[in-house]
Amino acid sequence: MMETNLAAAPPRYTVPYSRVGSRLDESDVAAVREVMLSGATLSAGEVRERFEERFAAHVGVRHALSVTSGTVALELAIHLLDLEPGDEVITTPQTYQATIQPLLDRDVRVRFADVDPATANIDPQRVAALVTPRTKAILLVHYGGLPADMDAVMRVAREHGLTVVEDAAHALGSSLNGRRPGALGHIGCFSFHSSKNITTLGEGGMVTTDRDDWAERLRRVRGNQADMVLTPREGGIAGSSEPPFGALYPGEAYTHDCLRVRRAGTNAALSEAAAAMGLVQLGRLPELVARRRAVAARLTAELAAYDTVRVQSVPPGVEHAYHLFTFSVDSRRVDRDELVRVLAAEGVETYLRYFPLHLLPEWRARGSALGDCPRAEKAWFHEHMNLPCHPELTDGQVEFLAAAVSRALAKATRA
Fold first, then answer.
1. Could you tell me if residue 405 is inside a domain?
2. CB neighbour burial string for 79-96, b if at least 16 within 10 angstroms, e if fewer
3. Separation CA 138–CA 48 (nearest Å)
4. Tens digits of per-residue pLDDT, 296-313?
5. Phi/psi zone of residue 399: left (φ > 0), alpha (ψ -120 to 50 degrees), beta?
6. pTM reported for the whole predicted model
7. Are 110 and 153 part of one and the same domain?
């Protein structure tokens, strides 16, 4: 993660930031152990299929395809956009760099739409203002586990024929009017990194979609087959149109010719042990998210006493997954950097997520500049705060955190 720690870390924190965003127990160990000792394949087997089926049902889509990381999920989702030189993609500056990093390998223009300061999610009005005849897709994030304003985003997409990719790495366990991220746009991407709301042995990811053709292309690529445009071949090759028993290659090697290769294949298979852990974790997701919401509710109640702060707004009809707990300070009255330093001295570890992507050197080299997204810039440099919010926090730690925040705000508030 792109993280900035403004304070010198004490040796130990009373309230640490999460290294494992889930809660692990013996059921995870038992599931992994069972797979390890089963004698069955440890790669691309029946457990992975069950995990994908259950995940698809949870999200509410036809297809869920597991891969080795959230970053790989995003790479493959962007591959499905079939971008051509000169195409444009609209995205948010308020996310981790992996969301848009695959676009650096393409001769496309990335346009950053500023965020809604109340939610830190992409502002649909700014998206609409950036659309041109060359725009091909919108790539957004449900920041911190708060679903973006997808109704408004999808209206823009329908009007202009755009594909919407959801980076839902933070959003597992959230919903928007009863529907889940990963099924709100055209393609969803999830991460099961160690820090996420569920994990698959520290790394893993998932791509979700309702389109059969996209799902088939993804299956090919992650399974070391090229994604290509094929045409039937008469008569097969070497006098045969059928592969022999036990052949490694599919029948199309005998029956089709390639007109065009879209992308070479790779091995992105999630291991059976990781999938087994994912099944257990997905089953515990309601419990894990409920704990995050309880922590967030306590912090929100504590901050309600201060007119110098604004907690991330949760619109009606939205259920927040609280991968991150976010609030903003009134920078005229509170010194945000001092607030971070005081919290560290109190024993609270804080990280700020995220540095505006359009100001990273690689994106400035592509034409982005300070001033392109003034709301995101103001938030990062003067206002934005994240506090620890994860299931492993004890009630005592949560109470300590709430009291420490109050003390720190008193010290960081300007006279």
1. yes
2. bbbebeeebbbbbbbbbb
3. 30
4. 999 999 999 999 999 999
5. alpha
6. 0.95
7. yes
